[in-house]
Amino acid sequence: MENIGLIGAGIGAGLAAVGAGIGIGRLTASAVESIARQPEMTGDIRGAMILMAAFIEGVALFGEVICLLAVFQ
Amino acid sequence: MSIQKTLILSLLCLIGTAFAQTNHTNSETPSEQKEEFNPSETIVHHILDTHDWHLTDIPGKDENGNRIYHPVALHLPWFFYDQGFHFASGTEALLEKGYVPYHDHLYKLKPGVSTEEIHIAHGQVEHFDPETMADSDAHVIDLSVTKASLQMMIVGLLLLWVFISIAKAYQKRDGQAPKGIQSLFEPIILFVRDDIAKEYLGEKADKYTPYLLSLFFFIWFSNMFGLLPINSNIMGNISVTGALAVLSFILVQANGSKDYWRHIIAMPGVPVAIVPLMTIIEIISLFVKPFALAIRLFANISAGHFMILSLVSLIFIMGKNGESVGGALGIMPITVLFTLAIFSLEMIVAIIQAYIFTLLTAVFIGMARETHDDHH
């Protein structure tokens, strides 16, 4: 039973990665679609995409940090 | 040309001191050769900051004919504060002063415990229990130059050399086409200035461009150095990324406009009942931003090193610590291919993380400087 925290941390890390994957996937899909529609806006769209991807990734990293805390507590 | 010669000479000096340091500390043979290979311990040991800059191992034989490895390491001196500043060149000098280095922490020896009780093998303290043998009243503050800080100084010197020579080239070749290293870095410098600083900071960008450029090139160079063998991964160290994030945080707050602070303290245009809640959320997000900056850089760089080291560890796991040569040979092509792929990915990550850190700093400064006319 003492390893149940490790299982929780593993599941949590996986879920955080899944969430970030869905988020960045949807973001990138829309961004690429927009670039295809309006190639002249590529620069602006790319900048906004990377910025938002960084924010999504940030949320996922918080999840990972909490999982790390669960492992090393 | 003379600068290149100086660099090569200093590198040789570094290697020279490393060997000079080794000769007297490794007279005893390492005793842990028969130990089981522990991947997670090895990986964590490689990623963490240390006081010894481990360069390589030289294979040799001990007096019984067993194969042993002599570590070649640069032992960095200790510098610490305990009721006055102290300096010690190595483990022996530290023990004479009554301090014990153990697992990269410095402990003061409890009065009454003799140094004989601490078994020392090839410059490493082996039998030491901080609970019973350390003086719990002493507050030793370790200020030593560690592997990561020495690496950081090397990166800083390299940055100074590169960018001072570029700046001189711009002075000398005013109005002419860039030449040599100047033409290598010009597009990157222009990218940071035009696509990061000017894009998010508008006409006041020139004030912040030096900081953003320093940030970008320091993170990028550090990350690239971290991928080289022997070198330390600076950005895989939470204190370094934390310090960078604190610098950015201070810069953002120092440039906050009146509107920025009003939006934090009392958000205009929302019902009065919700204002205290909004204030709490805004204050949390104030500190979450630099925290996320630090964690993002740290996690991305450490994760890359973790992956590479795990793949290399696979050879030792499959090889059962030298017993199964077939297993090691079988996994080796897969490891080499995957490591190559991850190394290429890490080189892209190195510049992307530098870009994201710089970009987000610029965005946060831009957001803080903004003045709103509308009340939403």
Write the layout of secondary structure elements.
The complex is a heterodimer of chains A (73) and B (376).
Chain A lengths: L3 H34 L4 H31 L1
Chain B lengths: L1 H24 L13 H9 L4 E10 L5 E9 L2 E4 L3 E4 L2 H7 L1 E4 L2 E4 L11 E2 L2 E2 L4 H4 L7 E2 L4 H26 L8 H21 L3 H23 L10 H17 L3 H8 L9 H44 L6 H45 L7
Antiparallel strand pairs in B: 1-2, 3-4, 3-9, 5-6, 7-8
Helix pairs in contact in B: 2-10, 5-7, 6-7, 6-11, 7-11, 8-10, 8-11, 10-11
Oligomer: heterodimer
Count all strands of chain A and give the number.
0
Structural class of chain A: mainly alpha
- How many domains, in number, for the residues of chain B? 3
Please indicate the percent range of residues of chain A in DSSP E strands (runs of 2 or more).
Answer: under 5%
Q: Strand share of the residues of chain B?
A: 5-15%
| Side-by-side strand order of the widest sheet of chain B | 4-3-9
> Can you tell me the residue ranges of chain B where pLDDT is under 50 for at least 5 consecutive residues?
15-34
Coarse structural class of chain B: mainly alpha
Large-scale geometry of chain B: globular
CA-CA gap between termini of chain A: 16 Å
- Biggest sheet record of chain B: 3 strands, antiparallel
Short description:
The complex is a heterodimer of chains A (73) and B (376). By secondary structure, chain A is an all-alpha fold.
Report on the structure:
The complex is a heterodimer of chains A (73) and B (376). Chain A has 73 residues and is mainly alpha-helical. Helices cover 89% and strands 0% of the residues of chain A. Chain A contains two helices and no strands. Chain A has helices spanning 4-37, 42-72. In chain A, helix 1 packs antiparallel against helix 2 (42-72). By secondary structure, chain B is mainly alpha-helical. Chain B has three domains: 3-73, no CATH class; 77-142, no CATH class; 147-375, no CATH class. Chain B has eleven helices and nine strands. Chain B has helices at 2-25, 39-47, 91-97, 130-133, 147-172, 181-201, 205-227, 238-254, 258-265, 275-318, 325-369; strands spanning 52-61, 67-75, 78-81, 85-88, 99-102, 105-108, 120-121, 124-125, 141-142. A three-stranded antiparallel beta sheet of chain B has the order 4-3-9, covered by helices on one side. In chain B, a hairpin with a 2-residue loop joins strand 5 and strand 6. In chain B, helix 6 (181-201) crosses helix 11 (325-369). The longest helix of chain B is centred in the last third of the chain and has 45 residues, at 325-369. The A-B interface holds A 43, 47, 50-51, 54-55, 57-58, 61-62, 64-65 and B 195, 199, 292, 295-296, 299, 355-356, 359-360, 363.
